[in-house]
Amino acid sequence: MKWSATENIAWRADLPGPGSSSPITVGNRVFITCYSGYGVADPIGDQKDLKRHLLCFNRATGDLLWKKQFDPKLPEHAYQGEGAYHGYAASTPVSDGERLYVFFGKSGVLCFTLDGEQLWQSFVGEGTHGWGSGTSPVLYKNSLIINASVESGSLIAFDKLSGQELWKAKEIRSSWNTPLLVEGKDRTELVVNVEGRVLSFAPADGAPLWNADGVHRYVCPSVVSHGDMIYAIGGGHTSLAVRMGGKDDVTATHEIWKKTKGSNVGSPSSAARMRRRARLSIRSDWNRVRERSGRHPFWRMESCIS
């Protein structure tokens, strides 16, 4: 099948403005966020005119079913330099099939019914950064977990029904990535990539489980997993593999390999097992795809999975 701007397009819908979040589908509905009023034209305008939007479309026809508009808590980061890369709607919504959850940085976390009724709003901090805020919410059982590194240097879990805070973990430094839930043999872990460390928490109560030496710079890429292996990259100069499990600092016992090559922004992907090996692919900041582990030359490497 051939795709283009005009060929084999089922439907097209106009948005109020741009956004860096991904759309999600829930049944026959599509949800997406965007922003308008500031940072969308030249001149960039005034922050007081900034608006955020949440829209719901019919998945089959593209018809607009409902829309919401939000006034942000100001001031936000300025639309200039690297702060202009992703704007003011970079976090992808998430849904449990009954409710929809949206994160707008210092303007908070909002919960809606799938018909657009707002159920609650909670806040994660007042901090901003010149690069903006872009982590996405994560659902775990009855909780909604937010990486609020920019807003408060925290990882925060809320009750998904009421918005009440359940737990908070501190020292989440210079982290622009979405945490990953990983199923282990004996427990579920919540793993996040922060400046200097890879951290694992118990998602039920936020208790620290283990940590390992990580990327010694700000970190944008999320970790990925394959089996019991956690892969982390970042800073434009680091990639590593660490085996999940253990307690406290596990660098000496669980780090499998570490390389001085890595992407600055894009997250890695882990391919299916092939002849007892898993292939890890990384797209660099120069649009090259790299496959690696610690065993073979940089441009084509594979990581053994026992």
Task: Supply the key terms.
2 domains, single chain, Lipocalin, mainly beta, four-stranded antiparallel sheet, five-stranded mixed sheet, 306 residues, disordered C terminus
Kindly state the percentage of residues in helix: under 10%
Mean of residue pLDDT? 88
Distance N to C terminus: 39 Å
Sequence stretches where pLDDT stays below 50 over 5 or more residues: 271-276, 285-306
Residues in β-strands, percent: 35-45%
Largest sheet report: 5 strands, mixed
Number of helices: 2
CATH class of the largest domain: Mainly Beta
Strand adjacency order, main sheet: 13-14-15-16-20
Structural domain tally: 2
Task: Describe this structure as you would to a colleague.
The protein has 306 residues and is mainly beta. It has two domains: 1-172, Lipocalin (Beta Barrel), CATH 2.40.128.630; 174-306, Lipocalin (Beta Barrel), CATH 2.40.128.630. The protein contains two helices and 25 strands. The protein has helices at residues 149-152, 251-254; strands spanning 24-26, 29-36, 51-58, 64-70, 94-95, 99-103, 109-113, 118-122, 138-140, 143-148, 154-159, 165-169, 180-183, 188-194, 197-201, 208-213, 224-226, 229-234, 238-243, 248-249, 255-259, 269-274, 277-283, 289-292, 303-304. The strands form six sheets. Strands 13-14-15-16-20 form a five-stranded mixed sheet. Strands 1-2-3-4 form a four-stranded antiparallel sheet, with no helix packed on it. The model is unreliable at 271-276 and 285-306 (pLDDT under 50).
